[in-house]
Amino acid sequence: MSAFGAQSTKPRLADAMRQLAGAVAVITAGRGPARTGYTGTAVFSLSIDPERLVISVGRSSSSYPAIRDSGFFGLNILRADQQAIADRFAGRGGVKGEARYAGAEWKETPAGVCLLVGALAAIELRVEEIIERHSHAIIIGEPLSIAASSVGEGLVYWRSTYRSTANERALAADGFVALDGAGLGLATSQAGRAIGVPGASEPSPDPWRAAPLAS
């Protein structure tokens, strides 16, 4: 019996963590033809003063040695209409390395970090510390430049499915009933119709051209 009274096989940690929704980000690493990167949700702010954030990356991935050896990486927080980019950096269809950068516009910083033009937020980071534990490495990054937009909806990953932060607001306006208390856009109509990520929306104003990266 599980803790909730239902008979089931013993869940793994991965099964539990699928219940934790996370913003989808693309982490970029390496330079030129050696560029690589991955899609992840294991990102959080460690400190505001000084500004530091943390990512967790698999030690067997191609991205880890690229970050470790260069000492820099990029964090790109995706919009709801950038799911195709998330899929490419997740390796869908066998796409690897520099080929993952195709089909999107990138800005390269003087340190060689690739930042996604049109992302909700894009941060250039210098590695401050790496802590290797078991299968992954915890990397603490110091922001060097930041671009952020207040326009657009975020892309969220929950229960192995992409969602949009737009869903709950749009459904509430249309008279739908949200079912998940966390406000993650998992909702159905009163007839029980499941709602997922909406289609691509009209392009929003580009903060990259309105305001250059801070140095």
Which key terms come to mind for this protein?
215 residues, alpha+beta, Pnp Oxidase, Chain A, 2 domains, seven-stranded antiparallel β-sheet, three-stranded antiparallel β-sheet, 15% helix, disordered C terminus
CATH level-4 homologous superfamily of the largest domain: Electron Transport, Fmn-binding Protein, Chain A
Biggest sheet: strands, sense, closure? 7 strands, antiparallel
Order of helices and strands: HEEEEEHEHEEEEEEHEEEH
Q: Structural class of the helix and strand makeup?
A: alpha+beta
Q: List low-pLDDT spans.
A: 176-215
Look at the structure and give the CATH class of the largest domain: Mainly Beta
Number of helices: 5
What is the C-alpha radius of gyration, as a whole number of Å?
Answer: 18 Å
Broad shape:
globular
Named CATH topology of the largest domain:
Pnp Oxidase, Chain A
Mean pLDDT: 80
CATH architecture of the largest domain: Roll
Strand order of the largest sheet: 3-2-6-9-10-5-4
The total number of structural domains is 2
Distance between the termini: 55 Å
Task: Please explain how this structure is put together.
This protein is 15% helix and 36% strand. The chain is globular and about 50 Å long. It is an alpha+beta fold and 215 residues long. The chain has a seven-stranded antiparallel beta sheet with strand order 3-2-6-9-10-5-4, with helices on both faces. Strands 1-11-12 form a three-stranded antiparallel beta sheet. A three-stranded antiparallel beta sheet has the order 13-14-15, covered by helices on one side. The longest helix is centred in the first third of the chain and has 8 residues, at 63-70. It folds into two domains: 13-164, Pnp Oxidase, Chain A (Roll); 165-196, no CATH class. The N and C termini lie far apart (55 Å). Strand 11 (155-158) and strand 12 (161-164) form a beta hairpin.
